[in-house]
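Re: that chain you flagged

S.,

Sorry for the slow reply, it's been a week of failed gels. I finally had a moment to sit down with the sequence you sent. For the record, here it is as I used it:
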Amino acid sequence: MLLIKNGTLYTMEKEEAIRADLLIDNGKIARISADISPTEKMEVIDATNMRVYPGFIDAHSHIGISEEKKTPQRDECNEGTTPITPHVRAIDGVNPMDSAFHNALAAGITGVMVGPGSANPIGGQFAFIKTHGRKIDDMVVLAPAAIKIAFGENPMNNYGPNGNIPSTRMGIAALIREELSLAKAYFENGNSDGDEFRMECYRELFEGDIPLKAHTHRVDDIYTAMRIAEEFGLKLTFDHCTEGHLIAEDIAESRFPAIVGPSLASRNKDEVSLLDFKTPGILQKAGILVALTTDHPVSRIQYLPLCAGLAAKEGMGEWGALRAITIDAATICGVDNRLGSLKEGKDADIVIYDGNPLEISSSVSFTIVNGEIAWKP
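Prediction finished late last night. Pasting the structure tokens below so you have them in one place:
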């Protein structure tokens, strides 16, 4: 058992901080109370003058797939040889020995949504994993957690110059519709044309358990992703959503959430020319559920709290930014039953800071995953 005493708890169940003790037993939060007396069986962390948060979550990442020490052999982010690859799985590409996992833990990031990149219109299966471990199977919280689809420049630039489809946004949408139509026919009447393995990749999607995870930057791509999801009656997240602030009301009406970022990156292509830290706050104030992403390694994963601080400064506010890397991120990723807040019965994934994590001068004192201290200075 592990007891955190005298800390200021930001449970994220409510927008208020409380002075309380927190007891961890068997990897779970067992009790939160004003005063818990330690016993000989307990390891005690004195969190006096410290802030205690649920572990932070990056809702869109390529950690362990695009590794920190990047070589052609260590960048496996895209199976860019054919445009439709729903059957590739993040869990088969993540290397838990990637040094970025250490950096994540040192920043208090305990959970990540990780998967293929955006070279393909349909890129494969994302997984939600924890950042502490050596065996990917033991780190998985939810897999598959989403099916990646991508619009805009990346699929066009990957295939078009070689004379292949897609070379246009119309081609991207057509390929996605064609594939989803085949999947719909398979689940409605069993017609798979002998490709049951690929069609089965969409089962959780068509049963409503997981979303399409849509790489969308520009307004027109956001609308196309929305249109396709509504046509097939599927869940969807708008990942990146760079120009989402221009159509916040329509996104709110769709009720699809947004995962915004990487805002701490260069405007290195046309579709991110309007990138701004004001976007997540505008979307959140419009009633949209918002999470933040570093899109690691586009921005390095340890800068997630910094991104939250900049988003807070540009209109999101402190609590809104904290929610975007804790409970709202967990909800969007489909893991809020276990993660995202400090609540009895949830996984004991916790970060203890010596100050406000949204301020650059603050540091992590302890990162706890599954009730065990996974990082400390």
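What I noticed first: The radius of gyration is 21 Å.

Talk soon,
D.
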